[in-house]
Amino acid sequence: MENKTGKYFKYAIGEIVLVMIGILLALQVSNWNQDRKDRISERKLLDNIHKDFVQNKIQFDTVKAINYRNLATLNGRIALFPIERDSAKIAAFQSYPPVQGISYNPYSSSIKSVINSNSLELIQDKELRKYLVSWEDVLLDYQEEEIAFFKFNNEVMQPYLIENADILGRDQEVLTDFLSSIKTQNIVVSRRNRIRGIIKAIEEEPIENHINEIIRLTQPKD
């Protein structure tokens, strides 16, 4: 009886061990399968972000180039002051390309979707998560300078042009008076200073680095 009891006891222990091993293997397979699904989901998120930010970089480079051209135009015009009814200076002033107002409006829906859906934890790269979380604040900091530029255009420059300039450019005398005015000179200088603010944000704020790093960190790996 003692031998039978011992055999049954060993058999029971063996059964328990086998069951535990089976459970552990099942958990391991389940964890592996969940991790595989998570990596597939992560890759889809990264692909969407990467696609958006490749376009964001193209748009940012365009905005950057236009603002540098705007600055060159305004600096060239300011160098002509005072115009004082000088026809050669007036012709030179008009020869510069127009200042083009352009704002940076990047795609951010992929990042917002990740953050709002609590999918951020799927992204394993901690450095990338840092850039994604801070992107909105970095973008808003940069856009403050653009907002100041467009606010000046809409609230100061446009009303002044409507009241004082010959927008059709048909009356040379009105044009001469307009460009000879000290107020026109001051407005051109003020506009240049706001473009300088945008250029400073481009060069000193972290926005361009954020764009480049997000592209790099979301790049598909072969």
Q: Helix/strand/pairing class, anyone?
A: mainly alpha
Number of strands: 0
- Taking all Cα atoms into account, the compactness measure Rg is 32 Å
Order of helices and strands: HHHHHHH
Shape: rod-shaped
**Helical segment count:** 7
Fraction of helical residues: over 70%
Runs with pLDDT <50, length 5+? Answer: none
Which band does the percent of strand residues land in? Answer: under 5%
Topology:
Layout: H1 2-79, H2 87-95, H3 109-116, H4 126-164, H5 172-180, H6 182-204, H7 207-217
Helix pairs in contact: 1-3, 1-6, 1-7, 4-6, 4-7
Overview of the molecule:
- The chain is an all-alpha fold and 222 residues long.
- The chain has one domain.
- It is 80% helix and 0% strand.
- The chain has seven helices and no strands.
- The chain has helices at 2-79, 87-95, 109-116, 126-164, 172-180, 182-204, 207-217.
- Helix 1 packs antiparallel against helix 6, helix 1 (2-79) packs antiparallel against helix 7 and helix 4 packs across helix 7.
- It starts with a helix and ends in a 5-residue tail after the last helix.
